[in-house]
Amino acid sequence: MTQAAEPIGLSTNDGSDRSLDRDCTTLSRHVLQQFQTFTPEAQDLSALMNRIGLAGKLVARRLSRAGLMEGVLGFTGELNVQGESVKKMDVYANDVFISVFKQSGLVCRLASEEMENPYYIPENCPLGRYTLLYDPIDGSSNTDTNLSLGSIFAIRQQKGEDLDHSASDLLASGREQIAAGYILYGPSTMLVYSIGKGVHSFTLDPSLGEFILTEENMRIPTQGSVYSVNEGNFWQWEESFREYIRYVHRTEGYSARYSGAMVSDIHRVLVQGGVFLYPGTVQKPEGKLRLLYESAPLAFLIEQAGGRATTGHEDILDVIPSKLHQRTPLIIGGREDVAKVESFIQNGH
Ligand code: AHM
Ligand code: MG
Q1: Are residues 168 and 92 in the same domain?
Q2: Which residue lies with its CA nearest to atom 5 of ligand 1?
Q3: 11: Cβ below 6 Å to ligand 1?
Q4: What is the pLDDT of residue 267?
Q5: Which ligand 1 atom lies nearest to the CA of residue 259?
Q6: CB atoms < 10 A from the CB of 235, how many?
Q7: Are residues 193 and 234 in the same domain?
Q8: 41 vs 176: CA distance, rounded Å
Q9: pLDDT higher for 37 or 114?
Q10: Which residues make up the environment of ion ligand 2, defined by Cβ < 5 Å?
Q11: CA 321: distance to chain centroid?
Q12: Statement: residue 5 has pLDDT above 70
């Protein structure tokens, strides 16, 4: 005899209401729960994640009405430090994070894809020893077509005084990250984060205006069927990547999935398994993606979920950049899937 499912929200024998308890598991509370103490570090990280959540809500709100408002979509006409055309949403989202952290007292510097040099908040610096690294809008090319987008973030502890504003302490490996994650602007807005204690996902409940816990301790499948790569670059890659793609083409069971926004592609890989690749090309061996605020935060997250991230020759988290906007090739996903790509690189096809 099948047992009837327990209605959602039903009080349990001990008098507690599990669905209510779940609705109360907000981002800031979850961070504190993981520390199990109220140390200053736990409180700082809880406050930082709460602020990142606020930035996500502001960006999500604007995106949800973008087509109805003047001056939200399209390009600004400017080029950013990477030489890429800047979209109005890139500028808005970049400013949102600055604005949110200005009053935080916690963050002294912010470094993003859209700013050549870090943005300093001097009034926070005596106490606020954290640096936020972020990509305000990841997958910008999806903006004007109402497709998924993301924001990527990482938090590092500032080392030294940085009196000359060179931010040279940021040129350190991804193992220095103390928290990282992304916000996914899809049919619902999700926030996935790790403070080095597993990976946890939250969904924005618009009726509450809060990110509510959706899944704790996410684990990426060791092997999956999805490969996610822009095959339009096929003839620009090294032969080893072409060989890998030929392998998946002739092997039954693989599916290609590529949205143009790495956050949504990697979210699929995290949940369902597979591998995401953005290799370098013969012309640009370092690829497109930036280490400090794209590849390293996602590598931190995927490793915490039991997966791997590599350049093809070195773990992403071990790469020490020589400049703030350094690019890196990226192969990220389940352990077996990443190992399969590596086997083609090592064989030097
Ligand atoms: P962006 O942050 O400027 O949008 O660039 C990053 C994005 C990734 O999200 C995505 O996987 C990739 O660039 C798409 O690039 P391409 O159009 O070359 O496939
Ligand atoms: Mg990006």
Answers
A1: yes
A2: 139
A3: no
A4: 98
A5: 11
A6: 9
A7: no
A8: 15
A9: 114
A10: 135, 138
A11: 19
A12: no
- Closest-approaching ligand to the CA atom of 231: 1
Residues 281 and 342 in one domain: yes
* CATH code for the domain of 260: 3.40.190.80
In this structure, the residue with its CA closest to atom 15 of ligand 1 is 260
Task: Work out how many domains the chain is built from and give that number.
Answer: 2
Give residue 290's domain range. Answer: 226-347
**Which ligand has the minimum distance to the alpha carbon of residue 288?**
1
CATH of residue 172 = 3.30.540.10
Three-state DSSP state, 264: helix
Give 288 Cα–ligand 1 centroid separation in angstroms.
Answer: 7
Write down the H helix ranges in 8-82.
18-23, 27-35, 40-64
Report yes or no on 13 lying in a domain: no
C-alpha span between 282 and 181 (Å, rounded): 30
CB atoms within 10 A of CB 346: 12
User: Is there a single domain that holds both residue 206 and residue 101?
Assistant: yes
Question: Which contacts qualify for 235-238: CB closer than 8 Å, 24 or more apart?
Answer: 236/281, 236/282, 236/283, 237/279, 237/280, 237/281, 237/282, 238/279, 238/280, 238/282
Are 208 and 239 in the same domain? no
Amino acid occupying residue 92: Y
Please determine, for residue 12, whether its predicted confidence score (pLDDT) is greater than 90.
Answer: no
DSSP states of 140-151 as a string? GGGGGGT--EEE
* Ligand 1 atom nearest to CA at 276: 11
Q: How large a percentage of the chain has pLDDT more than 90?
A: 77
pLDDT tens-digit profile of 299-339?
999 999 999 999 999 999 999 999 999 999 999 999 999 99
- Ligand 2 centroid to residue 288 C-alpha, Å: 9
